[in-house]
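Notes from the 1:1 (GR / supervisor)

We went over the backlog. Supervisor wanted to see one worked example end to end before approving the batch request, so GR pasted a single chain during the call. The sequence is below; no edits were made to it. Supervisor asked that the structure be written out right there so they could see what the output format looks like.
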Amino acid sequence: MPTRWYNLVPDLPMPPPPPLNPATLLPLVAEDLESIFPRSLIEQEMSLEKYIAIPKEVLEVYKLWRPTPLYRARRLEKLLDTPARIYYKYEGVSPVGSHKPNTAVPQAWYNAQAGVKKLTTETGAGQWGASLAFACKLFDMEASGVRASYDSKPYRRMLMELWGGTVHPSPSTVTQAGRDILAKDPNTPGSLGIAISEAVEVAASDPTAKYALGSVLSHVLLHQTVIGEEALQQLAMVGETPDLVIGCTGGGSNFGGLAFPLLREKMAGNMNPIIRAVEPEACPSLTRGVYAYDFGDTAGLTPLLKMHTLGAQFIPDPIHAGGLRYHGMSPLISHVKELGLIEAVAVPQVDCFKAALQFSQTEGIVPAPEPTHALAEAIKEALKCRETGEGKVILTALCGHGLLDLPAYDKFIHGALEDIPLPSAKLDAAFASLPSRSSTSL
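Structure output shown during the call:
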């Protein structure tokens, strides 16, 4: 099991653009974030150290499920009749059933060390909210969350409450941001951007509370690099080197956690895999968004982040991959894509569930809707290998199981799941609200 996290930033040929204070448009300083984050996590967010030691208290909790297994999908390969070798790093063995505790545990620990009594957060599919509730219970803290998929995924809410978390549907009447949005559209399906606004508002107004987030920012992706570090060791044990690394992307934590250690090895000349991010066609920030400064939330309470974005006012359609319904992409992943170090594609929802059925009916694991995007792309590449005869090694991260997402599978099996087209007009309207479109200083 890794004893340190990997920070990609020092190895990059160019540093990423800094976050900006929206009031001054100057690069963010640590003091700008102290109302919502403890100093230790702010230092990690801004760190230029290549490696950061994992605290022993965090390692002890990690031992509940880490190292996670790396499997070869032999039965799927047989079904596809492909010479490709498909490996998947399975994060569904964690207590919550996803990769999210990899960062929830250290975030809760660092906050507890700083004397914080309560953490607020947003959650899309509910995996992050459940992870933070679990982590807070371990360190005797209170967890409060707002979730975008409150109605469609009730068992995630129950799991959060089982671990002592308090959960509100988003948008809610608990916050001013939520009340304002409901006043404009009482029937809004919500979004991660809206949920972030509410969680940040609660944290900023409560002196005993801080905010924790499950993706997007660099310290979150830093904690997730245990995935890629373990995968490198496990592949070495069987003498394999990946030709293609594929991960699903919403905010970027699962993808960054798998890909960043492999990107380090690629930049060092030790291997040369294609690294590809896969996102939903209904929320395609990397493939159809613009690279610009934008707010990380709908109400404009966060710093301005340089990222691939669909616009903070963009409300994604209610696809079942709730964890991928975010208008922006991790600034670090966005920067890496701008440097040409990774690729990105978007896939429709129905194709993802078709891939999930093939996977679950051969490998026996029901995947969460989020990693089905990566599975769909992995299967597509494996079928190409069948045509060319190439025995490529494909590596992906199965970031969680879908045992609490069975209503989505029920819809798909019975023909009630549809792809929702994303018209350009909807994107244009959201792009028009970008801060960079209204300020010549950005």
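Supervisor's comment: The chain has a mean pLDDT of 91.
Batch request approved.
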